Amino acid sequence: MLARMAESLFWLARYLERADDTARILEVHLHHELEYGPKTPPETFLTTLGMHFPAETPTTPLELVNLLGKNREHPNSIAAAIAAARRNANGLREILPSEVYEAINVAERMLVPSAESSRGSSISAFFRYGKLAHERVATIVGIINESMPRDEGWNFLELGKFLERVDMTARLLRLRFTITATNADWVTTLRLCSAFESYLRAYHGVVNPSSILEFLLLDRQFPRSVHFGLLSAESCLAGISGGPARTTVPNPVQQLVERARTELTFRSTADISSNIEAVLENLSLTTTLASQAISERYFAATDFGAWHRRGFSGAGLI
């Protein structure tokens, strides 16, 4: 496969996942703000997630969702991610099924507004917009799953999706730990990760933060957990490289992903909980380094689209 096409497939999947997960993160934040009143300044929200700061930092929840929802100029917004996915799809017309391309075009028309209508009018309008983003991305992913052959291109798509999902789940959990969350907040987090019913079945209806953290980080069967994402990324990398020979050391990308996954696997839940800030920061760092390594190994040396990063430690934001 041409490096250009592989790169476009990788980033197409990442941008679709980013649009969906940005909506999830914003919804978790807004549910808490609406329930308990403004607790987390928008600047803290942006800092925690390592997002790009605009020239004029938002000061209210409505300004925040306008910035990260329909604002095409902000690189971390839902609209910007959908527009970027569409640009990558343009270079893949010869290998993308026509149904996938059509679904991406529909998503762009529905989710990327004109400059004149780029600002939402209310928080409730954003929730409708976020629901639409979930539905359109799910439609595209569903058509991809039903129509794409499981070849090298598929592995690049899945690799991009799962690396982005690991990063965004880590960001979501980092946001949750910036506030004193109640059990109701954690239930909201599960619901917005499409995890509530799966969690209840796995833990027999008992809701507590430690178990929810364990489920979202370590569950081996739930497709949005960090462990599942890292294991899936490993499988994609093995498919792309042909799998390591019996005595061959894994390539640098595989080493990064496998190390992150094994560090989670062999740590107890109590150990992870007591060092959660460092664990989540390392997961985000792993996805950034993996993206760099993938670009160097498989693609031309280009900007890999990482978000602006800020430090995060047990003492708080730095």
Features:
318 residues, two-stranded antiparallel ribbon, 14 helices, disordered C terminus
If helices are DSSP runs of H or I spanning 4 or more residues, what is the number of helices?
Answer: 14
Task: Give the amount of beta strand, in percent.
Answer: under 5%
Structural class, by secondary structure, is: mainly alpha
Radius of gyration: 19 Å
What is the structure about, briefly put?
Helices cover 67% and strands 1% of the residues. The protein has 318 residues and is an all-alpha fold. It has one domain.
Question: Strands, helices and their partners?
Answer:
Layout: H1 3-36, H2 42-48, H3 61-68, H4 78-90, H5 98-111, H6 123-147, H7 152-176, H8 183-192, H9 196-203, H10 209-218, H11 226-241, H12 252-265, H13 269-274, H14 276-298, E1 312-313, E2 316-317
Antiparallel strand pairs: 1-2
Overall description:
There is one protein chain. The chain is an all-alpha fold and 318 residues long. It has one domain. It has 14 helices and 2 strands, in the order ααααααααααααααββ. Strands 1-2 form a two-stranded antiparallel ribbon. Helix 1 (3-36) runs antiparallel to helix 4 (78-90) and helix 1 packs antiparallel against helix 6 (123-147). The chain is globular, with a radius of gyration of 19 Å. The termini are far apart.
